[in-house]
Amino acid sequence: QLVESGGGSVRAGGSLRLSCVVSGYTAKYMCMAWFRQAPGKQREGVAAVFVNDGRTYYGDSVAARFTISRDTAKNGVYLQMDHLKPEDTATYYCAARLGICDSGWPREGIYNYWGQGTQVTVS
Prior knowledge:
It contains no helices and eleven strands.
């Protein structure tokens, strides 16, 4: 089970941090990712991290503004979002799969586990 938290409303230029905690199994050997979906748009990959070695991947639209990090003690990952823009408004989902992350990380179909989503609104 993936449990997300940290969404909310913020003004443009502000910051938010999302958290995703894995319960029921260890996240250590998982590729964990954040996706987002805005109304009327397809879900897109935001960032991913292989928890075991910390290697990260980012979507082009968020690179240099968002940072994904792992917290092995808490068995989860964070998404630090800085310099937020109105176009970042979306429901953000945490996803996980057993195994490494690679160049195919943005494909939704490779993830076995999904969180319930948390809303981020930037005005």
